[in-house]
Amino acid sequence: MYISTIDEMRYYLKTLNVKQEEELMIMVGDRSAQYVEELISYLNNENIKFFGGIFPGLVAGNKHYSQGFIVQKYEPVYSSIVLPYLMPFRLSPDQLQNCTAILLVDGLSSRMKDLTDTVYGKLKDHVKYIGGGAGYHTLKQEPCIFTNKGIFKDVMYICIIKSDIQIAVTHGWQRLRGPFYVTKSQDNILMELDSENAFEVYKHIIEEEEKVALFREDFFVFAQRSPIWHCSEGSNGCCS
């Protein structure tokens, strides 16, 4: 359910019946991020368990919003915050039958691979996966994953529910160039593509496509509409 203002959110939460075994997932548009601390305090006072993330945009139906809230109620089989190589988990594969893992992660974390490896190391292919990266439209890393215990960066939250979902996902991007091979990187920083400076490769493509002069300080402005995608062979990902 999409809720546009903090006043409407307060009213909705007062009318919502959340059982002890249930948990709220709350997605927040980054233009409403200033209300997250208030939400944490309110929900803790009401003894409501919750998790969520701050995102550059929310999609409800066929509309896009940069502010407001989306709230969904679940009854988890398992839920926990995940740190790199730290995820307390004792469920058996039989207990995960027909389950889906909802994952919210700091989308700009340099520990992304460590976080995803930690989850997959525990769950393997016993569940289906759905989720995405949280963060701000500025592409500046800030705490963006929140729970009853506060708001964090460089973490993931996992909520496993009894639901055998069917996933059909595509993106709206058009490939401009590529694919390119990553020949040098450090954590989540691209340093070389096809043995050339990664920024110079990107700069050359953008300047040819958009007929502009691109400087390093302008990178994040262009990266929001012309991102570099990670591709795997045979996937629907693209490099643009």
How would you explain this protein's 3D organization?
The longest helix has 13 residues. The chain is about 20% helix and about 30% strand. It has a six-stranded mixed β-sheet with strand order 1-6-2-3-10-11. Strands 7-12-8-9 form a four-stranded mixed β-sheet, with helices on one face. The radius of gyration is 20 Å and the shape is globular. With about 240 residues, it is of the alpha+beta class. The two termini are about 35 Å apart. The chain has two domains: about 160 residues, no CATH class; about 70 residues, no CATH class. The chain has five helices and 15 strands. The C terminus is likely disordered. Helix 2 links the parallel strand 2 and strand 3.
Short description:
With 240 residues, the chain is of the alpha+beta class. It folds into two domains: 161 residues, no CATH class; 71 residues, no CATH class. The protein contains five helices and 15 strands.
